[in-house]
């Protein structure tokens, strides 16, 4: 059964026709549990956001209080992947931004329709009691094309969206997909079915070296051509660009080199992943703030790879071993982000907003501002 719309409970002029006492009591009983424990300074801040922005800026937050330093003039949605923080929810709502829950579930469980229904009910309850605005479904599990999980996943997304839209007006249900629809990391999903079934897809245009089939060498986290070919493939299969939000990385990869050649080719250890002989798992993810602190002491300084349109540098660790670090900066991000306007994508977002330096140090402050600045659509 649908809960009464929260707006019923919002302060409003006295009704012209007096409610009969019993009816009034019933209404209060329904409203009080919702309003009595709203943690925000104004109860209205507990209302879900209904406004639909023209351009999405979809931010992943992984916890703590760095969100206080984000550029809230741009943010439209925060996917709260850290511990629930009611202060973040109140603040986001005061800025008109949505806060959505993380949704993940073992896929073998969701083959059972009744399991799906109870999972959805549980997430919906959590979202309502925490005054959130929707859910971001982040299933990155392997699915074989002819397995029962294939259709069950599409059904999960469809049923989640139906429940959420029905129960919370204006709520948002989104789904995270790999950089390409070509069964990356063994994820054979019904991408068109899933896109139809939710509000939009967040395309994770990063970790694009998760499966290296030929040379085992360090490469960009999100090379320009590879990234754009992924969007073109999603669009070619019939998914509207308005259903796609471009996800960019605010982190890079630090690869220990088995050998670093004079022309900067860094050979990496063979770490297989889902059938591929080598992967980015040979490296370690590093946040942009760490990278920016390290560049000046590196042996190469910042270099630009033209073929991949991405920056990298080489450094020597205390044991004397060479490493190569590939990352994204305002230059590489703005090249990719130009595609958003050219093809009419719905917006942009990043994994994750916590990766920048919010310490307030003068150099860091400027670098951080530049990273937020390139998210803005160019006129
Ligand atoms: C998918 O199929 C492969 C090869 O048949 C198998 O190794 C793998 O375990 C399967 N994965 C899942 C999630 O069922
Ligand atoms: C994908 O899902 C939609 C909606 O459930 C369905 O109509 C379509 O046949 C599915 N496509 C494939 C290739 O399974
Ligand atoms: C390793 O790097 C050195 C120095 O650049 C180079 O001379 C050598 O050919 C490389 N070895 C291999 C196996 O690539
Ligand atoms: C690194 O060097 C560049 C160029 O000299 C300089 O602009 C930048 O401020 C330095 N960064 C740090 C963190 O010191
Ligand atoms: C990237 O794509 C452009 C245009 O299709 C092409 O000319 C270029 O060779 C590609 N670069 C690489 C490194 O694949």
Short description:
30% of the residues lie in helices and 19% in strands. It contains 9 helices and 15 strands.
Question: What would you note in describing this structure?
Answer:
30% of the residues lie in helices and 19% in strands. The chain starts with 20 loop residues before the first helix and ends in a 6-residue tail after the last helix. It has a domain at 38-249 and 329-373: TIM Barrel, CATH 3.20.20.80. With 379 residues, the protein is α/β, with parallel strands linked by helices. It is globular. An eight-stranded parallel barrel has the order 1-2-3-4-5-6-7-15, surrounded by five helices. Helix 3 (113-129) packs parallel to helix 4 and helix 4 (148-167) runs parallel beside helix 5 (191-197). The structure holds 2-acetamido-2-deoxy-beta-D-glucopyranose (5 copies). Residues 292-293, 296, 363 line the site of one 2-acetamido-2-deoxy-beta-D-glucopyranose (NAG). Its main location: other. One of its GO terms (biological process) is oligosaccharide catabolic process.
